[in-house]
Amino acid sequence: MMPDGLKWIAWAALFIVLTGCQPPPPTPVSSLWGSIATLAEAEQSQAPALWVQPDGVLTAAWIGSDSSGVHQDARVVSGPLLGNSRTLPLPPVHPLMQTLLPGPGDLLHLLWLDADENGEQRLYAALLSADLQIERGPTLISDRETLRYTANVVGDGSLMIIWSGGPLAEPALY
Predict the structure, then answer these.
(1) CB contact at 8 A, 170 and 144
(2) 126/122 Cα distance (integer angstroms)
């Protein structure tokens, strides 16, 4: 018969040996789509706006917020390299529905809906450089309450934009 102290040591040794026999913790499964990166830590009700250049460089824009308030953010992603997130100097009120489209040269059009000085939702645009500098804008596009919009690129890098809006009871296309 083993003394109690020796039993305790035997049980402790058995526990340590059996703990070492556990399979290793599972390793994260890589995605079939490639590497996964976090674009931004931001509460979102809508997907970010994305544009991929022919050379594979991705530009993303989204609505962010912090202690300074609501802002529009953007980032360039080149392969596995995430560029720095940049707060765009566009004075937002309640921005939503961002869209990125190619502009002339290496520029990008950023379109979004936002409240104007009277609190009515309007369509705005800005022209961004490849390094996310504002080349032009924000520019007010719509002249009345705007509910939705669609845009397409014309051959010279300009945009054809159609929006719905006007009186809520009888919205029209503009």
Answers:
(1) no
(2) 14
Q: What are the backbone dihedrals phi and psi of residue 150, each rounded to the nearest 5 degrees, phi first? A: -140, 150
Q: Which domains does the chain have, with CATH numbers?
A: 49-173 (2.115.10.20)
Question: How far apart are the two ends of the chain, measured CA to CA in Å?
Answer: 95
Cα separation of 127 and 109, whole Å? 5
pLDDT, tens digit, 9 for 90 and up, residues 15-63: 555 555 555 554 444 677 777 777 787 777 788 999 998 888 999 999 9
What DSSP designation does 37 have? Answer: -
Torsion from C-alpha of 117, 134, 61, 119, nearest 10 degrees: 0
Find out whether 48 and 76 touch, Cβ atoms under 8 Å. no
Which residues share a beta bridge with 124?
112, 140
Main-chain dihedrals φ then ψ at residue 37, nearest 5 degrees: -130, 150
CA 71 to chain centre: 12
* Contact (CB, 8 A) for 95 and 112: yes
Task: Report the predicted TM-score, pTM, of the whole model to 2 decimal places.
Answer: 0.78
Tracing tokens 């800005």 back to the chain, one arrives at 126
